[in-house]
Amino acid sequence: YTGNVKGLRMNTPANHTPVTVQNVIVLGFTGNWKTMYVQDEMGGEYSGIGVFCDFDRSCTAWNGMTAAMTATRGDKITIIGTLDRFTPSMPAGAREQLQVRPTMVMKTGTGTPTAVEAPVADLAKGAMNNAKWKGVYVRVTMGGPWSVTNLMPAELVNSGYMPCRPGDGGMICCSSGPHYGGFEVTGGILIGTSWYRAIALSDMECARLTGMMPDHVVTMADRFTVIGGVFDDSFGAQQIFPTVDGDYTRQ
Known about the structure:
7% of the residues lie in helices and 41% in strands. The chain is built from three helices and 18 strands. Helix 2 links the parallel strand 7 and strand 8. About 5% of the residues have low confidence.
């Protein structure tokens, strides 16, 4: 297959099919830098997909490895690789996911990630008819403001960003009890915080123990007039991952 992401997602070829995805915009990376999300330049339904970069570090330098190129948010790139269709083993009933495994990543220019308005009902936890939004940069402004309803959603326990600091021979991470990789707002929308260091108030003592304070603190008092980011499944839960500060706006 050669073309854009939308064509690939709407007419998905067989697993391990060679693909060339042309002139897509980098949206950002997951917190562990293993997956890069990209989408077609104009965004919209079926326009986004994950690129699994872990095996050969072909997308970015990571953990001291040298990359074939270092991609950053806003880069326009062409990706050559294979399509990976897989179904996670957990949780039960998990749905098929799509990724591209790259063999070559080439920068072709720069652009601006474009978010598209998506209905709250499509993005809420448990919603089923939302394949068109997977991997897409979404923004929700209608129906708010949204209040924080849960700082410890069961769907996000022990997932996402874990406060760590460098130590002798490796990283020292806080593991004194459950860690929650996000929070929930009205409408049943889960906000994943592993892409940049937002953290729930319940994890603040953990952050203090490691000396790694977060960039942002979310509390039950918070209300948001805008929520946005990349929508996808992670740890068995569908959630929105903010990628920059402007993806969610406090009232």
